Amino acid sequence: MIKPRLKTLLITILCICSFLAKAQIGYDYAQYDIGFAAGLNNPTGTDVTTAIKKTPSAHFNLTYNQTPFLNYVFEGQFGRLKAGDPAAGYGLQFENHFALFFLKVQLQAGELIDYSQSNVLNAFKNLYLSTGVGYLVNHVVEKADVGLPGDNNTNIPVIPARIGYEIKIFNQYNEPSVKIDLGYQYNFVMNDNLDGYNTKLLNTKYANDMFTQFTLGVKFAIGGVTSYRKQIHY
Fold first, then answer.
1. I want to staple 233 with a disulfide (CB 3.0 to 4.6 A). Which of 89, 94, 149, 174 is the partner?
2. Which element (helix H / strand E) includes 37?
């Protein structure tokens, strides 16, 4: 009777010790994050080149972390763009409201480098590049009527190109639980109707529209804890 109880006690102790050891080595991370961000938009690549306004957008994202430094991000954005002065140039002016949805892959430097022996590399491990595909639902709510062709309501594919830095905040088990994200993103729109003016129909020298964004966001780990092949926190 005593031996089975002793065996059960030993197994329990070993399991607890194994769990505590795993929790302390600093290799664990959550596979899923949920996040929010604010963006500042700049329509620098449209047909309207005067009186460019910086306008806000709200961002929501869900991230799957294949590793702490290789991330797949689904993101939704809601915002507006505005530029133009009717008294300047050709009198072009526009304001649009948009919804934008992205599926992006994000590669951080920590996935590629050995940051364990260098304070400099350790600081750079959270620097990342990101790209993917997007879908823009665009509504031009105001523009100057200057006789140019164009559509006020369009659904447009978008290609993002982003550079950023993720500040990881670790919990008591050295797992990244909160992440502050700073990023700068180019959005390459796959037609010329973002501003409601499709000047490509008049002259093929004009390119597709684009706009840039600076974003500040925060992400929270929400579960699916697993382990990484090397230490995350130094």
1. 174
2. strand 28-45
- pLDDT in tens for each of the 234 residues of the chain? 445 565 555 555 555 545 444 444 558 999 999 999 999 999 988 888 888 899 999 999 999 999 999 999 999 999 999 998 877 656 789 999 999 999 999 999 999 999 999 999 999 999 999 999 999 999 999 988 878 888 999 999 999 999 999 999 999 999 999 999 999 999 999 999 999 988 877 765 668 999 999 999 999 999 899 999 999 988
Report how far residue 115's alpha carbon sits from residue 65's, in angstroms, rounded to the nearest whole number.
19
| CA nearest neighbour of 224 among 26, 25, 67 | 67
Q: Which domain holds residue 136?
A: 2-227
Provide the domain count of the chain.
1
Domain assignment present for residue 233? The answer is no
- Is position 104 within any domain? yes
- Amino acid type, 205: K
Q: Can you tell me the distance from the alpha carbon of 41 to that of 215, in angstroms, rounded to the nearest whole number?
A: 9
Domain annotation covers residue 232: no
Element (H, E) at 24: helix 2-24
What's this model's pTM, rounded to 2 decimal places? 0.84
The backbone region for 227, taken as left when phi is positive above 0, alpha when psi lies in -120 to 50, beta otherwise, is beta
Q: Is the sign of the CA dihedral 136, 138, 143, 147 positive or negative?
A: positive
Q: How many CB atoms lie within 10 A of CB 67?
A: 18
CATH number at residue 130: 2.40.160.20
